[in-house]
Amino acid sequence: MMGASETRRFPTKKALKGAIGEAPDFEETSLFGAEYTGDGQYMVVGPHPHERKWYATVTVANGRIARVS
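Request: output the structure for the sequence above.
Response:
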């Protein structure tokens, strides 16, 4: 995973769906430690953690984005 300054940002949920098949690149925002721990489901916001215009559930399988809903 890349650092926050290098994280890829998606302007729309549709753009995030275009990343299906790619390795996830999430910006961690929790004060309580890492949120991304590998395969599973994750709630994400975009295009930026402080500018929440869209929300999505991302499913990661085998280290790749498998589904965006």
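Helices lie at 13-17.
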